[in-house]
Amino acid sequence: MGIKPSEMTDEAWDYIFRDGPFPTDTTIPKKHLDHLKSDFNYFYPFDIRSSGKDLIPNHLTFCVYNHAALFPEDKWPLSMRTNGHLMLNGKKMSKSTGNSLTMKDSVEKFGADVTRVVLADAGDGIEDANFEEKNANANILRIHTLVQWSEVGTLLSARKVIGNWTDGCTCAGNDQGTGQVEGWTEDLPRFGL
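Given the sequence above, the corresponding C-alpha cells read:
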C-alpha cells in the first residue's frame, strides 16, 4: 500500500480500530484505510486465545488490559483458554537435555493414530500432560488388535448376510445351501475362526 509510518496518525488509527471519522488531514487514500479497517473487523473480536499456563500473570492479563484500554467492548476477546505443558516420560521436555519428541518424530516412531490416542490420553486442562512412550508402544498393540477385531466382525457379518442370501440357492460358489460362499470365508482361519 505504500503507507509511511508518519502517515499513521492517531486519527487514522481511530478510523481503523475505533470506527472514528475518516481523517480529514490524511494523505492516505480512503480505499487503503478501508482495506485496513476491513481486515481488522474480519479478525476482531478474536474467538479464543489459547496459551500456556505460565503466561496467565503477564501476557494473558495484559492482553485483557490492552484490549479494554484500546478497543470498544465489541472488539474485546471472546474467550481465553490456558493449558499445561507437555512432558515426555514424566520429565519436562527440553531440547538442551535431549528429552524431546517432535510431532514428526512421534508420527514416524509410533504412527499418526497412536500419537493421537496417546496425546488425547496424556492429560487435559491446566495440569501438565505427560506423553509416555510406553503408552504409545502399548497403544500400537491395542490399535492393531482393534483393527483385527474389526476385520473379523466385518467378515462374520458379511458371511452371515451372504449365507442368508444364498441359503437354498444352487449357484456358483455356494456349497448347496450351506451358506459357504467362496472368497468370504477364506480369511477366517487367519483369525482362528
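The helical segments are 10-17, 30-43, 56-70, 103-110, 112-121, 133-166. Try to locate this feature in the C-alpha cell string yourself.
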